[in-house]
Amino acid sequence: ELENLSDAPFSGDEENGGSEEHKTEINGNWIPATSITEAKINAKAKRRLRKNSSRDSGRGDSVSDNGDTLKIGVVVPTSPKGKLLDRRSRSGKGRGLPKKGGAGGKGVWGTPGQVYDVEEVDIKDPNYDDDQENCVYETVVLPLDERTFEKTLTPIIQEYFEHGDTNEVSEMLKDLNLGEMKYSVPVLAVSLALEGKASHREMTSKLISDLCGTVVSKTDVEKSFDRLLKELPELVLDSPKAPQV
């Protein structure tokens, strides 16, 4: 009974010397056990190679299915992706030079030394306006109001007390749009001179004399001194000797 058991440790063939190999039936074909074992070992080795290649993909080399080592960045020429990314001439006549002399890329101004001509206006353009050809653009300076007048002219007059150049003050005042505040220029100059030294008062007298006829008129000067006489009680608070001066 023990000899007829199918799960015995050794079969009759193995007891005779073990010269014959085990055979397994797969899909109706009898395949030796040794070939199946070798196939499993090969499959396991391929899986290990793929795993290692995925780990080393950022290190510079990769391993293909055939076991060949490939450098990163090298595309197999036979793959369709490699053909699309290939910038070489498909006709074989290209010289490998950049297109348009290096001036054909995105965001490129053009080749070095290229000079662009002045673009001519198209008369047939629906947005063309004949009046634009004869337009003269000027810088408009808004007139000074009472708030900005004192803030703007005070540093100019104080700097004049240091350099004493009336021409410079005249040029700076011409750049400003004084408007109706012209008569206030002598008023502000005299008010600052009353708080300063005797030399400042002499310089203020010379300044008003040089500005009269260029920046301010005689009427503006008369109007400014009339206002100074009316504001004399307020000037005495800051300068007690203002009436005598």
Task: Describe the SSE topology.
Elements lengths: L11 H4 L7 E4 L2 E4 H23 L5 E3 L5 E3 L8 H6 L60 H18 L2 H9 L9 H11 L3 H14 L6 H13 L1 H7 L7
Antiparallel strand pairs: 1-2, 3-4
What would your notes on this structure say?
With 245 residues, this protein is mostly helical. The protein has a domain at 146-238: Serine Threonine Protein Phosphatase 5, Tetratricopeptide repeat, CATH 1.25.40. The chain has nine helices and four strands, in the order αββαββααααααα. The chain has helices at 12-15, 33-55, 80-85, 146-163, 166-174, 184-194, 198-211, 218-230, 232-238; strands at residues 23-26, 29-32, 61-63, 69-71. The strands form two sheets. Strands 1-2 form a two-stranded antiparallel sheet. β3 and β4 (69-71) form a beta hairpin. α5 (166-174) packs across α7. The longest helix has 23 residues, at 33-55. One of its GO terms (molecular function) is RNA binding. Residues 43-52 have a biased composition (Basic residues). It is found in: Cytoplasm; Nucleus.
**What is the second-level CATH architecture of the domain at 146-238?**
Alpha Horseshoe
Question: Which residues sit in consecutive blocks of at least 5 with pLDDT less than 50?
Answer: 1-21
Number of helices: 9
Largest sheet: 2 strands, antiparallel
> How many runs of DSSP E, i.e. beta strands?
4
User: What does the overall shape look like?
Assistant: elongated
Instruction: Could you tell me the CATH topology label of the domain at 146-238.
Output: Serine Threonine Protein Phosphatase 5, Tetratricopeptide repeat
**Helix and strand string, N-terminal first?**
HEEHEEHHHHHHH
Oligomerization state of this entry?
Answer: single chain
Cα Rg: 51 Å
Q: Could you report the average pLDDT, rounded to the nearest whole number?
A: 75
* Proportion of beta-strand residues: 5-15%
Structural class: mainly alpha
User: Quick one: CATH class of the domain at 146-238?
Assistant: Mainly Alpha
Biased composition (Basic residues): 43-52
InterPro entries: ARM-type_fold, Initiation_fac_eIF4g_MI, PDCD4
Biased composition (Gly residues): 99-110
Keywords: Cytoplasm, Nucleus, Repeat, RNA-binding
